[in-house]
Fold:
Amino acid sequence: MKDTIASISTASGNGAIGIVRISGPKALDIALKLFSCKKLKKNNIEERKMYLGDFSSNGIKDSCLMVYFKAPRSYTGEDMIEFQLHGGRYLCEGVLQEILNSGARLAENGEFSKLAFLNGKMSLDKAEGIIDLIEAESEQEIKAGYELVKGKLFQTVTQIQDQLLEKIALLEMTIDYPEHDDEPLVKNQVENLLEKVKDQIQNLLLNVKYGKTIKSGVNVALVGKTNVGKSSLLNSLLGEERAIVTNIEGTTRDIVKESFVYKGVKFNFIDTAGIRQSDDIVEKLGIEKSKEAMKSADIVLFVVDSSKNFDNEDIEIYNQVKKFKHIVVLNKTDITINQNFQFDNFIEISCLNNMGIESLKEKLYQNSISLSSPNSLVLTNQRHIQALEEALNNIKNLNDISNLSTDILAFELKRLWGILGKITGVSENEKIIDEIFSRFCLGK
Structure:
């Protein structure tokens, strides 16, 4: 008989509600042994109905709710019980222990979701979408995770796999029944399908860069001379004092990283050391890090003191900055503007008076918007991206299909089908499946 597993499914600590979950063949028997409700018996319990009653065992007592999900109409595909308790940590742990004492074992990380996958209740990419939803730090990450949970990628890849299986079957038939002499026709069909599949995969991979931005956020480097207000700007953008601000030149000597979310997009700000000629060894190291940060950033904010003339030092820095996507930020506009240089993409602000900060946030947002269609599927999972890239390379390496033997061509299509199975879970090996579900928390 299969194991019956149990775990606390809500976050650790005290809260309004605590949920303890049981799944497996003994779930209902264990629950009814520990939970009492007027006239409730095994033969009259209704699935998906909340019962108010009492949990009582060895001094662990609570007035709580219990719901029964009958297999296969449950999250795991097995019989499931959920107790909704008062959310005390000691109470939930006590309830769990009594369930374990009654014949269940403690679930491993992600085991409920792994059962759902193994019992055909979810695809592998949907499971990873759930992980993305749990770990999301921005609205864009939530949207991307939700698209996986809704199965958009699964539907696309499964359709490709089904088409490949159809052609594999035709190739196998020509091997088993060579007298029909359909080989040239079948190879032509395979060639047409692979061209179509190649286009589909390339379209999916178009949004990879945007997907990486969603996953990790837009990296923004604050660059400029010393004492132009880079740290003040970072504090103004964050709305709190996170960087040290003084009127002493060269205060920032290392990289300072902070993030915030604006209109669903996460921005990672890197406050760098002021770039200037210096004999100080520590400051020189900071300046080198500034230059490296500028090269790796998605957007560079070139901060300029607008109350002073644009000098040769500014020009030298600007010549480096303009090679990258950038916005010139003219700071200290509360003082008389005394600029002698024209910029194509600039904004005027005053960190002292908090003027222009919201406009700068909007400008950053507009500069970070993807050109891809908002309805297109965005890939954020590196494992999915690698599988698609591997599949694409395999197709590109299949040259002159008409001269390949039928059995080799069938083998290559099977390999392609297997590569795509890394996304859907169809044909995926147990090691990778275990790795994915181990990322879930207990009780999920």
About this structure: The chain has 15 helices and 13 strands. The chain has three domains: 5-107, 125-207+378-437, 217-368. Residues 64 and 85 are 5 Å apart (CA to CA).
